Amino acid sequence: MATQQEREAFLRGWRAAMEEVLAVLGVEAREWAEEEAEAAQSGQYKLPGSFALEEVRGSFKGRHELLAWITQTGPAATRANDPALKTALDALIEDRATDEDRAVLGLAHLGRGGGGGQDGEEG
Fold first, then answer.
1. Please, which contacts does 20-29 make with residues 24 or more away whose CB atoms are closer than 8 Å?
2. CA–CA separation, 3 vs 10, rounded Å?
3. Does residue 57 fall inside a structural domain?
4. Are residues 105 and 58 in the same domain?
5. Is residue 123 part of a domain?
């Protein structure tokens, strides 16, 4: 099990990484939208890349919001000192969360005993 300092460092890193990814994707989405608008005005055909970009941005935003929900606003946030919560969060971080771990975190069950799935896609 990770120490409290390791867990906090991981969560800070996760937040920082997600914020950076979302910022970059936001810039790219604006650039795509501008290019598509210019192509539409000039009558040129341009592949609509913003749809795929929005899908990627949505996935990262969902993971960012999931972390905030688990650690700050969800039902598990008020039990920060609960050892079961720490164990379940470690399992989620390591992509081995069981349905029991997910329940402790306030997440929906995936209907399987072991991890290995893509946690964080409820949002």
1. 21/60, 22/57, 22/60, 22/61, 22/64, 25/53, 25/56, 25/57, 25/60, 26/57, 28/53, 29/53, 29/54, 29/57
2. 11
3. yes
4. no
5. no
- Render pLDDT for 60-102 as a digit per residue (tens, 0 to 9): 887 778 878 887 888 777 887 788 888 888 888 788 889 998 8
Residues 66 and 89 in one domain: no
Q: pLDDT by residue (tens digit) across 13-39? A: 888 888 888 888 888 888 888 887 888
Strand locations in the chain, DSSP E? Answer: none
DSSP 108: P
| pTM assigned to the model | 0.49
Full domain range(s) for residue 61: 4-73
Tally of domains within the chain:
2
Give the tokens for residue 14.
Answer: 């996760």
